[in-house]
């Protein structure tokens, strides 16, 4: 039987001020309300690079 490919991606945080601030924000503000995965997906869906990627994939289908 073939195994299904996992769609989970691991987030990595370094011990830098920026990463610690982001990690703390995610744990304090996002984790128990919206959820980290949902929050990150929402951010990516609004990113200009993702929008361009999605539009170019649509144009290739046409």
Can you tag this structure with a few keywords?
62 residues
Largest sheet: none
| Nearest-integer average pLDDT | 92
Structural class by helix and strand composition: mainly alpha
Quaternary? single chain
Classify the beta-strand content into a percent band: under 5%
Distance from N terminus to C terminus (CA atoms, Å) equals 36 Å
Helix coverage percent: 55-70%
Please state the CA-atom Rg, rounded to the nearest Å.
16 Å
Q: How many beta-strand runs? A: 0
Shape, principal axes of CA atoms? extended
The H/E string reads HHH
Distinct helical segment count: 3
List segments where confidence is low: pLDDT < 50 over at least 5 consecutive residues: none
Describe this structure in words.
By secondary structure, this protein is mainly α. The chain has three helices and no strands. The protein has helices at residues 17-30, 36-45, 48-61. The longest helix has 14 residues, at 17-30. The N and C termini lie far apart (36 Å).
In short:
The protein is an all-alpha fold and 62 residues long.
Mind sketching the topology for me?
Layout: H1 17-30, H2 36-45, H3 48-61
């Amino acid at each position: 039987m073939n195994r299904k490919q996992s769609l989970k991606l691991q987030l990595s945080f370094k011990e830098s001020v920026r990463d610690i601030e982001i990690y703390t924000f995610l744990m304090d503000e996002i984790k128990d309300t919206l959820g980290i995965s949902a929050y990150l997906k929402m951010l990516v869906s609004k990113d200009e690079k993702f929008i361009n990627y999605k539009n170019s994939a649509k144009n290739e289908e046409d």
